[in-house]
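Notes from the 1:1 (GR / supervisor)

We went over the backlog. Supervisor wanted to see one worked example end to end before approving the batch request, so GR pasted a single chain during the call. The sequence is below; no edits were made to it. Supervisor asked that the structure be written out right there so they could see what the output format looks like.
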Amino acid sequence: MSIKIAMIGAGSIGFTRRLMHDLLAVPELADTTFALMDISLANLDMVKQLCERDLKANNLPAQITTTDNQRAAITDADFVICMIRQGGLAAFQLDIDIPLKYGIDQCVGDTICAGGIMYGQRTIPALLGICKDIREVAKPNALFLNYSNPMAMNTWACNKYGGVKTIGLCHGVQGAHWQIARCVEQWAKKEELIGQNETVHRRDVNVTAAGINHQTWFVKAEWRGIDLIPQMLELFEGHPTYPTTEKVRIDVLRRFGYYSTESNGHLSEYLPWYRKRVNEINQWIDMSSWINGETGGYLRVCTEGRRWFETDYPKWLAEAPPLITQEKRSEEHGSYIIEALVTGRTYRGHFNIPNQHHITNLPDNCIIEIPGYVDRNGINMPVVGDLPLACAATCSASVRVQEMAMEAAVHGDVTLLKQAMLHDPLVGAVCNPEEVWQMTDELLIAQAKWLPQYKSSVSGAKKRLAEATRTGTRVKTVQTEGAARIKTKTVEEMARNAADARANASAADKGKMTKVEAH
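Structure output shown during the call:
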């Protein structure tokens, strides 16, 4: 069965090629047509050349088309996959640097907190445009698979206002699942439950994670009939490196009783406790990897990856093409969902969907992340029930921020945007209300070209800042690089360790817990 998959934002380094390989590892999908769309034809051309070379080397009949016309790419598509970063790295830089002047020190800034809220303001209008094209020119009932952050806000807007069934996909659960497997392996060897040469794969550990994207909690974990939840703290504290690299996650585990799926750096910026005092931030993070809490860490590695890819690209073309096989498939959900819907093979994963009594102590219609099953009949999501109260309380605070930010993005509502900022856990822990109002005005002005829904409001923001300057009431800001900022490397600096630079540039997942690294 030949299908068409539209990939929007396909000039993305690493991810497009990785996902294409995953899909083409399925025999029934070998003749898929991939319609790659990006606003950068130069990036698209580089990705296309690499992918077409891979197809030829593997003798696959799949077809690739490229365009900067979104509607053309989506026309007659069976599936649409979104991986856009609206505003690119220039906007991302503003998401990190402007809040930092107000004392808000973010590691990633793409989910909630000041950066994630602004990211949603830029991305949601673009996604609603994609939804419009899907409704009008895609195949009937085409499924929209969204990888773009902020995941919950984006998926919420598409389902509520886009009129398209949208599933949000993330790999956080898989990465944390591997961590639990590594802890079980370490403990089981110590207890002589397995041999010293044996390993524990994540599929050996049965888990259920539930919550909201990037704040999902392992509410069930079992290995060989042993309930791991009561001893999860002992398992993580007994691991040789996690007590150093996962300090926030282990502290939350100690106080909540449940382990979060999200990385140390990510989790630290969603909570009001760990990054609110500059002199305490370094107590909770680890600098061996950006994802453990480095200030602006994701911005740095993305910037370095883009610089290196553009420099190193000719060498990529010259190297031997990879072999596309089932064994080399990544753990990204997208290819498995499409495979299950097309072939009927059952797949279980954790997906982001609107809550319809699935988690009974979170609001209906908010976007939750829970286990689901996919086959030819569709995507089926079982009821999880109540989250543990502390987990539910943390998720509930974020859900209301997401809701206000999503509605603000759809309607261009400046007051609602400021209220979302005010209620954000970390922003509220660091800033007073006037600081929040001024910071939001500054962000609106700086990002105006990516915020069409706020066009009529930007002049008002400029007037407010000018009046505050005139009257001497403008909030004072600080000039700082943050508690744990690392300088972004130049191409020449990266060339001193070309292998690491290439690995970063080619990584689909720039986090550390990929399938390859898990063993």
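Supervisor's comment: The CA atoms of residues 99 and 114 lie 7 Å apart.
Batch request approved.
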